[in-house]
Amino acid sequence: MADVVVQHARAARTTSARKGGSLHNALRRKSTVAFFLTLPLILLIALFVLYPALFSIHLASLNKSMQKFVGFGNFTFLFKRETFWMVVKQSCIFAVTAVFFKALIGFIVAHFVHNIPAKGQRKWRGMLLVPWVIPPAMSTLAWLWLFDPSYSAFNYTLSLFGIGPINWLGDAAWARFSVILVNVWYGAPFFLIMYLAALKSVPDQLYEAAAIDGANWWQKIWFITLPMMRNIIAITTLFSLIVTFANFDIVRILTSGGPLDQTQIFATYAFRVGIESNDIPLGASVSLFMVPILAVAAIFILRDVNKRGNES
Amino acid sequence: MSRKKLTRRQFVAATAMSSAALITAPYVRGAYAAGKLSIGFWDHWVPGANDSSRALVNEWAAKEKVEVSIDYITSNNKKIELTVAAEAQAKSGHDILQMYTWWPHAYAEQLEPVNDVVEPAIKQNGEVNGTVKYLGQAAGKWLAVPATPGSQIKGPCTRIDLMKKYAGIDIQELYPAGAPPKADSWNMETFLKAAEACQKGGFAFGIGLGETTDSVDTAGAIFQSFGAELVNAKGEPTVKTDQVRQALEYYKKLIAFLPPDAPSWDDASNNKWLISGRGALIMNPPSAWAVAKRDAPQVAEQCWTHGFPSGPKGRFAPYLPYYWGLWNFSKNKEAAKSLLTHLSQASSIEKFVSASGGYDLPAYAKMTTLKTWAEVEPPKGTLYHYPNPHNHQTLSIAASPAPPKIAQQIYAQAILTKMALRFAQGEKMETTLAWAEGECEGFMRT
């Protein structure tokens, strides 16, 4: 009997030691530590991203007076609006054109900076980043003065050469050009810095080998630089596409969507409908319409990144 | 050392006695005995104008023993509209919040009726015009209190010299200081001829065709002077009418004489146009003149603010009333109403008008002949006709008489200026009308 009691006690001790050990092990596990370290961020994201996102879905399902559930009613209403489809078209033109030129300019300038001797490179990198680090609302105000309808500094300069005046913000084509130009000016340094980092990671031996094989500069870019930078290009493009699609400040400050709504994009139109016209559910629906477009883009771009990751 | 123990009986007796003493004791008013009140006022353009509202509120707070806090919220980039929207959603925030034009109707369900403030104010200060009622009243209930600060008429502000030189019109003769207007000849046709003459002289009228309020307000008054309504008071679309067609035809002729970049103008553009000396006329409250007094005195002394030209259906001037709204979730409604009553007194109104240099317009009929408008200069009498002292024009807002929740969308989405611009840029009349009708039908969702 005494033996049995002793064995029971030993068994109980072992179990509790094992329990304590597993908790201890769990806490020591890297993934657990990582989880706890990221927990504050997860909570912040839940509070400031997840909750507003879910709330906007809820809002988008209500009627104008926000008293009745209408399901997809707001979306079906939007699909019948001529202005909404114009906004969809313009948002796509704005985002795709701006991202393309940001990527192109970023790529070219990154090469220039990469070829500057290391000693002087830092100050160039710093200067070229300036547009990206100034809050866009402020820098766009400066652009607004440059484009000002009546007192444009650009027009003044052009007039010295007998050109103009150009109706920068009052003519639909020029207004579109202007908002895209400012977006490219603001966003190109981001591409530049990402591409510069990618360029620095391409081994010099590859270029040396290509040079021995007689490759010209174009072949070096096409067969070495671009394949080595593909993932960075894809991720940067996706990231920029999301940010550009959701742009608000540049268009709002420069044109407020005019003339005749011809520079209106998703965010500015959502504000016009939701806040200024006091139809918050419809405004939320306009904003949410971006989600499927960006989701499709994200799937395509990220799938490609995975594929290449597996290949390598 | 002995320690006396408190028995249960003693504790109960002491508690009962102290409670009785507290209940029966005479009420002593402390410094903030009547609680707290939080106010969100519109941040005035005119330097120093906020001081008058602050002084009036503090004077009332000291008398009524209420602890007040005031925030001055700018309307730049729609900040005040965002605050109104956020507080309405959160059901929390200021007790009193200044709202303009469409907002009392937009948040009607969340505003405390204020008939007990507005009705005595009307009795004391005179009747309010139809636009103040249209925007501030629903089913006999006053949704908000008409506020003097911010309320404005956006009538013409003309350069006396340029109008005389290029159009041959002596605007001071039509609108003499201190006397009723003699402006029968000041109609849409004269206006158009003057626009053409001044444009040819190199001083075009500065009327915007953008999507901000100044452009929309001018379009609204011109449409109304032709009797053109996009949606009638019953909420039915009335876009395809002869009156709308006439208004568009007129606008097309006028646009030919406006600056070519007018489609991109915002609410600052017309001010700059006048102050820089490039234009012979703008449609604005006296803020441009006030800035010109400081920055371009030679321009300011040639400015004359006066009435709108008349059209076939009458003389309409764009009017934007501001209101003070009291949220129904306010925790100190009685104190708020007491303050709003204080701010609606004739003496308070006079202080608002004086502090704003005549910019602010009271909603009440007996308050349009205050000495400020007669006295400010240069030139003397420049603002005499600004508050419509002789009632020779109807004060109206663009998109009225449509039900306010529909009209707000017509106004905010600048349908009137867009129609005018589309048609002037060569779109067929019927295409423009069909587009506008489609937009208006979309605004009727509930």
How would you describe this protein?
The complex is a heterodimer of chains A (312) and B (446). Chain A is mainly alpha-helical. Chain A has 2 domains: 2-60, no CATH class; 74-311, MetI-like fold. Helix content of chain A is 79%, strand content 0%. In chain A, helix 13 runs antiparallel to helix 14 (280-288). The longest helix of chain A has 33 residues, at 82-114. Chain B is of the alpha/beta class. Chain B has 2 domains: 36-151 and 322-364, D-Maltodextrin-Binding Protein, domain 2 (3-Layer(aba) Sandwich), CATH 3.40.190.10; 153-319 and 379-442, D-Maltodextrin-Binding Protein, domain 2 (3-Layer(aba) Sandwich). Chain B is 44% helix and 13% strand. In chain B, helix 2 runs antiparallel to helix 16, helix 5 packs parallel to helix 15 and helix 11 crosses helix 19. The longest helix of chain B has 17 residues, at 8-24. Chain B is globular. The chains are: A mainly alpha (312), B alpha/beta (446). Chain A binds chain B through residues 63-65, 77, 81-83, 149-151, 167-171, 175, 252, 255-261, 271-273, 275-280, 282, and chain B through 77-78, 81-82, 85, 89, 102, 106, 109, 209-212, 259-266, 269, 272-273, 276, 278, 405, 408-409, 412-413, 418, 421-422, 435, 438-439, 442-443, 445-446. Chain B: InterPro entries: Bact_solute-bd_prot1, SBP, TAT_signal. Chain B: Keywords: Periplasm. Chain B: One of its GO terms (cellular component) is periplasmic space.
Secondary-structure blueprint of this entry?
The complex is a heterodimer of chains A (312) and B (446).
Chain A: H1 2-28, H2 30-60, H3 73-79, H4 82-114, H5 118-128, H6 130-133, H7 136-147, H8 153-160, H9 172-200, H10 204-212, H11 217-245, H12 249-254, H13 266-276, H14 280-288, H15 290-311
Chain B: H1 8-24, E1 36-42, H2 49-64, E2 67-73, H3 79-90, E3 96-100, H4 103-106, H5 115-125, H6 130-136, E4 137-138, E5 141-142, E6 144-153, E7 156-159, H7 160-167, H8 171-174, H9 188-200, H10 213-225, H11 242-255, H12 269-275, E8 281-283, H13 287-295, H14 297-300, E9 303-305, E10 316-326, H15 333-343, H16 346-355, H17 371-375, E11 394-396, H18 404-412, H19 415-424, H20 429-442
Helix pairs in contact in B: 2-15, 2-16, 5-15, 7-9, 10-11, 10-19, 11-19, 12-13, 19-20
